Amino acid sequence: MAAGKADYYDILGISKSASADDIKKAYRKQALEWHPDKHKDNKEAAEKRFKEINEAYQILSDPQKRQAYDQFGHSAFAPGGGMPGAGGPFGRGQPFGSASGKWGPFTYTYSTTGGGPAAGFDFGDPFEIFEQFFGGGSPFGARRQAKPRYSITLDFMEAARGVEKEVSIEGKRRKIKIPAGVGEGTRIDFDDFVLSVDVRPHEVFERDGADIFVRQIIPFSMAALGGEIMVPTIEGDVKLKVRGGTQSGTMIRLRNKGLPYLRHGGRGDEYVRIVVEVPKRMSRQQRRLVEELREEGV
């Protein structure tokens, strides 16, 4: 992997085994999240991230390029790296004076003067997202020798909070730090090796990117009248208010209670799905009360 260059699978938040449909869905989610118009307070960083997302999609959505990337990493697209048209950002071997075709799911025409920034653009964008293109030079980095790859399996909480592990590399014991927020399929590039992460499922939490989901059962009486419950989060239980009249299936969002984002500050959210429990057996008094409610049309 070229120095300082992020892994394409990590950029889209998917595993190496992701299907073409998974790649497209992940691309759409990331592109919508990092559209520069949504980050006007830090537009430069958003544009950089948006460009990385589109570069990752352009490679992983093409079976031939994806196969080359899986085998050789970023070096497959460096000049002389073996892929046709690797000398320019559109991967078609065209001069930087003009180009046209598709970039990800977008159509484009592109023109420059003297290899500089684009002088004009014409986009057909099915997701209504403004595309960011490279100004000049190869975006794919330089060739370097492939590193040995290893894998490690973590518990859900270790992946969520980060952990320090002692591992054996080439017969030598080493301590490595795994950052908080890694997920299934995350690859971490250390100085002399690449580590692939597998994460064991959790009995309570389910994960989607940096967001987590929990299922919380409440009695019918609380759903009708309201109350308070304790909800688990990765940092411990928190108190949650349930409003009267809450319906089964209601989703309550807990902001910033999800996992840390792996490559930038902030956290995802936790979503609590409320499930109203209907008792299978009722006492005589409970049945009488329910029958009274039925008579009232409740």
Can you describe this structure?
The chain is α+β, with helices and mostly antiparallel strands and 298 residues long. The chain folds into 3 domains: 114 residues, Helix Hairpins (Orthogonal Bundle); 51 residues, Sandwich (HSP40/DNAj peptide-binding domain); 90 residues, Urease metallochaperone UreE, N-terminal domain (HSP40/DNAj peptide-binding domain, Sandwich). The protein contains 7 helices and 14 strands. The protein has a 4-stranded mixed β-sheet. Helix 2 runs antiparallel to helix 3. The longest helix is centred in the N-terminal third of the chain and has 18 residues. The radius of gyration is 25 Å and the shape is elongated.
Write the layout of secondary structure elements.
Elements: H1 8-12, H2 20-33, H3 43-60, H4 63-72, E1 98-103, E2 106-112, E3 118-121, E4 149-154, H5 156-161, E5 163-169, E6 172-178, E7 187-189, E8 194-199, E9 206-208, E10 211-219, H6 220-225, E11 227-231, E12 238-242, E13 251-254, E14 270-277, H7 284-295
Parallel strand pairs: 4-8, 10-14
Antiparallel strand pairs: 1-2, 2-3, 5-6, 7-8, 9-10, 11-12, 13-14
